[in-house]
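We close this part of the discussion by returning to an individual protein. Part of our work consisted of pairing the sequence of a single chain with a tokenised description of its backbone. No coordinates are needed to read the tokens, only the vocabulary itself. The amino acid sequence and the backbone structure tokens for this protein are reproduced below:
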Amino acid sequence: MIQNMKWNIKRLIILILFVGSADFVVADSIGTLSLEKGTIRIRRTMVDQFYSEPSTKIAILNKDEIQTGFNTSAKLILKAKKDIIELFSNTFFKVSNISEKTDDVRMPIGKARFSINKSKRRLKKRRFRIKTANASINVKGTEFVIGSHEGSTNLLTISGIVTMANINTPEIVVEVKMNQVSQIRPNAQPTLPVVVPPKVKQVILTTDSPKAFQETKFGDEIKPTVTKPEKKSSSSIKPENGKEGNEKESGLQTSSPTTTSVSDKDSDELAENEEVPQIDENLDGDLGLEEDLDVAENIIDEIAEVEETIDAAVEATEDIETVKTIDITVTNP
């Protein structure tokens, strides 16, 4: 009898472990992918699984790679905030990391429509990030469409504001507002956002292909401006003689030979009020402590974003190499 009791206890322990492991797998799921039509392939830990039955629902985990075939549409609903990502045909989509602290996905090839909910519980500096072959796209709460094709990234904002930058030059960022489009071509900067006509917008929304932006007219490419050090002109250098004459001509009191760039409006205001208020060094330094901390936090956030962008550039290259090894066209079995 004692032996039977031991056996039953072992069976109970095995059952508990099995149920616990099953719950762990379910808890690991970051969302559900629903296949509406066509064929999809899920690659998980280097193992491929095909699905072609309409209305099939698949639990998606972090690091999963999703590939859609010809004439295919699928919808990924993220569990935490009910964000919706609609995937179109011939799309390669990777869930990099979806968690309480970050939302990172990658789409080197394809077309997708994103509906990202703005949550009060999101961190102040947090963004939903999408990386393509050559672009980094950050959003809060908004709706937009991305098309990535032949090394170019195209963006249409349906609502809200989306920021986009080339992964190699993250400091050059463009804000794309509602009904505007922008594009990043290979080895180029984002184009100036322009409003698209309703007919063109409808084509982008309904075309089942990464080529949905093919007929779209984009703005001019943003050219980085290089700031050169200003050369001191003869009028800006304090001469040995004629000091009073130069002061009368400029309307400014010259206290040193240092040249300062001032706009015409500011120059006129300074001319009317010749005495410029000076900072009182006796003020309590603690008064600006909070502002200094905010500035420091913003700098830390910017450095972190640059580091993430550099990592994204490396991972995007790895994603492209992965896509090259997989046949993007999947036909129904």
User: Anything to note?
Assistant: The two ends are 55 Å apart (CA to CA). The first helix runs from residue 2 to 28. Residues 29-225 form a domain with the Jelly Rolls fold (CATH 2.60.120.1440). Residues 14-27, 234-293, 328-333 have pLDDT under 50 and may be disordered.
